[in-house]
């Protein structure tokens, strides 16, 4: 069983002297735990062209579409993710400090 993506899983790695039926290291349980973790990773990443909003594939594609859209208010300038400031009529980089999103000095 896995608890990913809510928390990271902790796996027991058997050593050379660990037998297949050592308590906590049972061979079938090792495979079941690894399979569950892999399935959770696949669900989180998603498939190419995923339409599931919680997947990384969907989120990356949505961000790329937003950045590349005609007349986008966003672009990457000088390696920084920027937003159009209509008052200043220039792009300004987005900043994040202590979880608060803001804008920096013009690029």
Describe the protein.
By secondary structure, the chain is an alpha+beta fold. It is built from 2 helices and 4 strands; from the N terminus they run ααββββ. It folds into 2 domains: 1-69, no CATH class; 73-107, no CATH class. Strands 1-2-3-4 form a 4-stranded antiparallel β-sheet. The mean pLDDT is 87.
State the domain count: 2
Q: Which band does the percent of strand residues land in?
A: 15-25%
Please write the string of helix (H) and strand (E) elements. HHEEEE
Unreliable spans are none
Categorize the overall geometry.
Answer: elongated
* Total count of strands: 4
Number of helices: 2
Helix content estimate? 25-40%
How many strands, what sense, and barrel or not for the largest sheet?
Answer: 4 strands, antiparallel
Radius of gyration: 22 Å
Strand order of the largest sheet: 1-2-3-4
Class by alpha and beta content: alpha+beta
Give the oligomeric state of the chains in this entry, treating copies of one chain as homo and distinct chains as hetero.
Answer: single chain
Mean pLDDT over all positions: 87
- Note the gap between the termini: 48 Å
Main features:
elongated; alpha+beta; 107 residues; 2 helices
Record the SSE blueprint.
Elements: H1 27-45, H2 56-68, E1 74-77, E2 80-85, E3 90-97, E4 100-103
Antiparallel strand pairs: 1-2, 2-3, 3-4
């Amino acid at each position: 069983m896995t608890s990913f993506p809510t928390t990271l899983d902790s796996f027991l790695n058997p050593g050379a002297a660990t037998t297949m039926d050592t308590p906590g290291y049972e061979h079938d349980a090792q495979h079941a735990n690894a399979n569950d973790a892999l399935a959770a990773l696949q669900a989180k990443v998603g498939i190419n062209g995923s339409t599931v909003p919680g997947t990384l594939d969907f989120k990356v594609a949505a961000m790329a579409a937003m950045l590349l859209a005609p007349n986008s208010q966003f672009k990457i300038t000088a390696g920084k993710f920027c937003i159009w400031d209509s008052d200043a009529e220039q792009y300004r980089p987005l900043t994040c400090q202590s979880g608060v999103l803001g804008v920096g000095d013009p690029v």
